Amino acid sequence: MKKIILIAAIIFLFIAGLWLGPALLNYEGYFLIVLESATFQFSIFGLVVIVIVMAILGWLALLLTKRLIDLLAGSQDWLFGFSARRKRKAFRTGLIRLAEGNYAEAQKLLNKVVDEDYDGINVLALAEAEAQLNNREKARQLWIIAAQNSQTKLAADLCIIRDHMLKENSKQALTYIENLPEKSQNQGSIIKLWAHALDQTAQYSLLKEKLPKWKKYLGDDFDGWQLKASKGEFAEIASKEGAIKLKEKWQKLPRAIKKEPGQIAAYAQQLIDQAMDEDAQAVLVTAQKNGPIPVLYSLYRELKNLQSNSAIKQLENWLKGDSDNAELLSTLGQLAFNNDDFLLAEKALSKAIKLANDRRDVILLAQIKEAQKDNIHALELYKKTIL
């Protein structure tokens, strides 16, 4: 629309010029300017030309003045300190040196712009350089400053927490997290560090309590954390109060919790650690009545000195419907080996090796051959593991 109006105005002025031009040239009137020492007389057309020329000269003078002011303003910093351009260059080069691993040079460059307003990125970058140079206290001070800027608060908080945990001071890390605003505490990256800090301080009951709220933040790691929390909690009970109290604790848990594979695996692991392999076998077999659960049947590998063979029977039953499952065959071979059934172990492992050739199975089969005094075959199998 603006272009149309501009074009129309130009056309109008052109037509007006064509119409008024001859009239101005032929017009006999004039302008007379009388000064103390001189008199000037202009025709109408001459005056119009002079006005136009003066307007153009005035516009050019204004443009030149503005350009000169900008030039002088830009040179002020060059005269009295770092110019904005040189500061930006120092900042960019400092970031590049940091990425290159040249921390001393990065520290030198970034120190020149530490007081500039770069949304806290300059402070955060300098803190990283100081940390890499093992100036931990200086780095910590810079992280605290960066945490005051909304743009870099989360990154700075994460650096402070990691620094505490790096120094094996997870209690201080927890204190820092607990003092953060709720908005910060609900950040996924903070929650993951929170879980690690609770694990390192062996606060498994608290970790277990918080896990349901953190499920969406932990994603695929949730089951692993649930297993770790349960293991830690059960281990604490077993070490302080014994296996009997551990079993009582399990019986008192809600039925829904006792159906969770992670909880069952944690409980069974503690029974195994307490040399209660028969009890562990019973728990694992019962939990897998409807089919194999990897996190549970993997524990069959740790069962030893069993009086009953319900776990072996269960594995053999599953293999009837899935005879080429290398993982189940490998598990059966390990379980049979642990309980001195070398014939079954050799049969299961030989088939598992044909299907998957897992180094773990080859070593175990070599041990069986060695136990059977078949040193030639044992040596051949050991050689395969180093090729």
Question: What's the arrangement of secondary structure elements?
Answer:
Elements: H1 2-26, E1 30-34, E2 39-43, H2 44-80, H3 84-100, H4 103-111, H5 121-132, H6 136-146, H7 153-166, H8 170-178, H9 182-185, H10 188-200, H11 204-218, H12 222-241, H13 243-252, H14 255-258, H15 261-273, H16 277-287, H17 294-297, H18 310-321, H19 326-338, H20 342-356, H21 359-371, H22 375-384
Antiparallel strand pairs: 1-2
What is the CATH C-level name of the domain at 276-387? Mainly Alpha
SS content category: mainly alpha
Order of helices and strands: HEEHHHHHHHHHHHHHHHHHHHHH
- CATH fold-level topology of the domain at 276-387: Serine Threonine Protein Phosphatase 5, Tetratricopeptide repeat
Task: Give the strand order, joined by hyphens, for the main sheet.
Answer: 1-2
The rounded Rg comes to 41 Å
Q: Treating each run of at least 4 consecutive H or I residues as one helix, how many helices? A: 22
Known CATH architecture of the domain at 276-387: Alpha Horseshoe
Number of strands: 2
Strand content: under 5%
Pick out the low-confidence regions: none
Helical percent range? over 70%
Report the major sheet. 2 strands, antiparallel
User: Mean of residue pLDDT?
Assistant: 86
CATH superfamily of the domain at 276-387: Tetratricopeptide repeat domain
Shape: elongated
Distance between the termini: 79 Å
